[in-house]
Fold this protein.
Amino acid sequence: MLRPVIELDDLSFLPLSGDLTPAELDQVLTRMGGYLDDETDPLTALLDTDMIIVPGGLLVTDPATGVVIEPGCCSGVEDWPGWAQVLAGTRHYFGHSPEIWAELSEDVVQVHRDSDPVPVRIDLPAAELPAMLRAVQQDLTGFLGLVRGWAPPERAGELARLLDWSLWITAPLGLPD
């Protein structure tokens, strides 16, 4: 299972979706704005940038075992479309400390976390990855809908367009045929 998440200041992760409470949405957008400029109010910081970078990424969970691989350092939610490249046979990295990467091995997408002392791997059926990525896109689209209600009406469209563009929310997924 894949879920888009933002890394909060306390190194915890909060899923991004249309199910966020108003308090969680405020926390997420404040984190995004503060990541850009902690001296400015979040809305101004977000709208004064050319591209929004969001610490986090996709949280990978193996429902059968309960094993979880969190996004690594320097991974961002904006990197999530890279998962589609894995289906094309490209090894893709999703952060470090520990190093996280995914690669295609026959009909399985292997997600690795190079942990010390024990590395961890979750296997995802490659045939199911497109549906998982569509679900991620749906979660992010729901989040984008909430953003429109967070910003003042005269700035809501501008903020939604910037987030959509920066996080590749409604862009084509680029999944192989």
Observations:
- The mean pLDDT is 91.
- The first strand starts at residue 2 and ends at 7.
